[in-house]
Design goal:
- The chain is an alpha+beta fold and 385 residues long.
- Helices cover 26% and strands 29% of the residues.
- It contains nine helices and 23 strands.
- The strands form six sheets. It has a six-stranded antiparallel beta sheet with strand order 18-23-19-20-21-22. The chain has a five-stranded antiparallel beta sheet with strand order 6-5-4-1-7.
- The longest helix has 24 residues, at 222-245.
Length: 385
Amino acid sequence: MKNTRKKQQLIVSALVGAIMIPGCALTAEAAEEQKENTSTLPIAGIESVLEECYKTNVKENINLYMVPTKEGEYLNRAFSNVSEGDFAYIRNAPDNESDWVGKLYCDSTVTVLDYAGEWTKIQSGSVEGYVPGNVLHTGEEAKQRAQDYEKEEATVEAYVLNVRAGQGTDAEILTQIELDEKYEVTGEAVGNWYPVKVGEIDGWVSGNYINIETTWTYAESKEEEEQRIAQEEADKALAEALAADTSKGIRPDSSDMQTDAWETMGYPDGGTSAGQAVINFACQFIGNPYVWGGTSLTQGADCSGFVQSVYANFGISLPRTTYDMVNIGYEVSYDQAVPGDIVLYDGHVGLYMGDGNIVNAMNEVDGIGICTATYAPILTIRRVL
């Protein structure tokens, strides 16, 4: 009996010497010899290893490393095995009759919580529930397919960053992006220049001014789907209403447009009616938040994002930054300004309402609101209608 106890003790000690747990600075060294009558582990034994790991916030991973499994390192990471354009229901219980709580799409990444026969319990984004095991790539297969689901995202770390047509500062500037904005990296870097997609523009940015992170796409909950569909329907209804309001046409970027030509388009006042439609639309969002780098009229926009998004609803594409907006359309004087004109300042932009006022995304305190057009020196006023 004594010899058996010694043998078990030496096995445990050797195991402790082999344990390497991510996040732990402490590695336990197995003793080369044990006295026959001793029953204690080495000083840096399994208890001290576990204690140190708890301190370094990896306690939830301990069982993974101490209990080998056939799935290996991809035990907890899995990817959807769903055809493009299709989805699998995530249910609140492991059977097909239970309520669904979310949908797993073709590009989804999940964390495996448990295996329950033919069903697997998962967490993906905000959704937790069960899916049939055959809609997931797990284990070694997940490891082989991981790169197909990973996406690289670039976060801008400069206040303003040029997006160029090629690698190098000699390449043409296509547009500019701003601090904390995030964009998809579309390929491999070339000489520390990264290809990114900015709206419809494909260009290159310097790796010195971005932070690259690997991201994944997750499942969509039932509530998130309902919110998305409601927003899409509201956007569609708004677009249809705007299309009806502007069906007479949009004034082209030309300073020599003749009055009689405007009359044939239904705007005898030189486009003022179209400009007023822009202001009427923009004023619907007064009181909504200011968000640096944002372009959402409801969730938050900065000054240039606000102007860009307002005009986008009228089918007019504007540059993303005030730097580029100074050259759009054609210039008019302050005395000639009409509703819908774009008023540019040093680092700010707003939409002229008439009567000496602008509607604009002001700051984080005031959000989207109205202020006097002459609150600061005006650089230029541009007309695109």
